[in-house]
Each structure stands twice: as structure tokens, then as C-alpha cells.
Design a protein that fits this description.
The complex is a heterodimer.
Chain A (H helix, E strand, L loop, with lengths): L3 E4 L2 E5 L4 E7 L6 E7 L6 E7 L4 E4 L2 E6 L4 E6 L8 E7 L13 E2 L3 E6 L1
Parallel strand pairs in A: 2-11
Antiparallel strand pairs in A: 1-3, 3-8, 4-5, 4-9, 6-7, 7-8, 9-10, 9-11
Chain B lengths: L4 E3 L2 E4 L5 E6 L6 E7 L6 E7 L2 E5 L6 E5 L5 E5 L8 E8 L9 E2 L3 E5 L1
Parallel strand pairs in B: 2-11
Antiparallel strand pairs in B: 1-3, 3-8, 4-5, 4-9, 5-6, 7-8, 9-10, 9-11
The chains are: A mainly beta, B mainly beta.
Chain lengths: ~120, ~110
């Protein structure tokens, strides 16, 4: 089955600096790669996603890049702010099963991002 | 905009008891997913339903069962609870169509088994 590895497990940056989180996946059939931000005790919140037919996507201070050949994707946050502090999860999902609309997410192990003021 | 609703938000049970968690997807969403998240862990996929039929199954114990009803809400039934079942349980929903992979999570149910 699919396996997603995520690095680093913790990341501390100064406010205004950039943060980069990297993930690799094992199943070449995976075609959808979302990133979720989770604050302590709260729900995972979708912040950006990318599909396998796109190499890069940007939304204001957040960007995601995908390298299908190498099977890795990365989250880039620029001009970090203290409110960006949270756990970030990457995830991957693959082809449908039995023609139905199911896409279970396989998550990475998470990155605790701390933005120091 | 309406979001995924889960109830109850908190639940305390004794070992060997049963629990029922409920999930109400975003209106018009037809697919529901259940995830379990232990302390300091990533969410683990349990089971999913599409149009009231089970569509995929993950690491869900045999003690757990789930279903999706005609109004698309889903219930996760957990029996013979064990201490290790203490976790956050998230429900997510999505809509078949152009962005069918996009899952939106509910606020979760925090289950504590004593």
C-alpha cells in the first residue's frame, strides 16, 4: 500500500523567514496531494492541494511543488507569521476503487512548525 | 458555509462499553470518510462510504462497524471499547465530481476510554 514520509518532524523559524516541508510517497498511482494544517485539538484544515497533472501551485504565501518522477512534493511558506505555527500534514491519495468516488488519504507523520516572533 | 458536523464532541466511556459517533456531511456531499488520530499521531483511515455503500476499508478493528444512511449522515459504532481506542475521531466528506478528492474534515469527536 501507499506510504508517505514527511520531513522534518519539527521546524523552527524566525518570523518573516521561509519554511519548507518535504514529503515522499511510494505508490506511483497516487494522483492527489493535499496539505493540511492542524492546530492542537482542532480539525485538519486543507490549506492547498495539487494534482498529478500540475507541477506547481501557489496561493498567496503558500506554494506546493510536485515531482512525479521522484515521487516527492513540498510545501513552501514564505514570510512566516506566528499564526502559521501548527502541525502540518502532507497526504496522498490514489486511483479510485471499483469506479466509485473513494480516495482515502494516507498521511505523512506531520511537521510541527514553530514561528518565533 | 455549512461544514461537517460531528456529535458528540466529547465522549467518556468505560472499558468494554459501546459508543456511537455521528457525522453529518456538508450538504450535497455524497462520500464520507472516518479517520482515527491518536495523540501525536497522523490521522489513520478507517472506512469510507459512497452513496450509502461501503467504498473502502482501512485499519478498522472488527469491533467497529459503520454505515451511511439515506440522508448521507454516517455513524461509527464501536463495541468492547479498549483503552487504546482513546483518540480523536474525524469524519470528512467530499462530493463526487470535478474535485471529488477534496476532503473537508469535521471538528472531531474526542473519545476517552477509562
Amino acid at each position: 500500500g501507499e506510504n508517505v514520509e514527511q520531513h522534518p518532524s519539527t521546524l523552527s523559524v524566525q518570523e518573516g523567514d521561509s519554511a519548507v516541508i518535504k514529503c515522499t510517497y511510494s505508490d506511483s498511482a497516487s494522483n492527489y496531494f493535499p496539505w493540511y494544517k492542524q492546530e492542537l485539538g482542532k480539525r485538519p484544515q486543507l490549506i492547498i492541494d495539487i494534482r498529478s497533472n500540475v507541477g506547481e501551485k501557489k496561493d498567496q504565501r503558500i506554494a506546493v511543488t510536485l515531482n512525479k518522477t521522484a515521487k516527492h512534493f513540498s510545501l513552501h511558506i514564505t514570510e512566516t507569521q506566528p499564526e502559521d505555527s501548527a502541525v502540518y500534514f502532507c497526504a496522498a491519495s490514489g486511483a479510485f476503487l471499483h469506479g466509485g468516488a473513494t480516495n482515502k488519504l494516507i498521511f505523512g507523520t506531520g511537521t510541527l512548525l514553530a514561528v518565533q516572533p | 458555509a455549512a461544514g461537517v458536523i460531528q456529535s458528540p464532541r466529547h465522549l467518556i466511556k468505560e472499558k468494554r462499553e459501546t459508543a456511537t459517533l455521528k457525522c453529518y456531511p456538508i450538504p450535497r456531499h455524497d462520500t464520507v470518510y472516518w479517520y482515527q488520530q491518536g495523540p501525536g499521531q497522523d490521522p489513520q483511515f478507517l472506512i469510507s462510504f459512497y452513496e450509502k455503500m461501503q467504498s473502502d476499508k482501512g485499519s478498522i478493528p472488527d469491533r467497529f462497524s459503520a454505515q451511511q444512511f439515506s440522508d448521507y449522515h454516517s455513524e461509527l459504532n464501536m463495541s468492547s471499547l479498549e483503552l487504546g481506542d482513546s483518540a480523536l475521531y474525524f469524519c470528512a466528506s467530499s462530493l463526487a465530481g470535478a474535485r471529488k478528492e477534496t476532503q473537508y474534515f469535521g471538528p472531531g469527536t474526542r473519545l476517552l476510554v477509562l
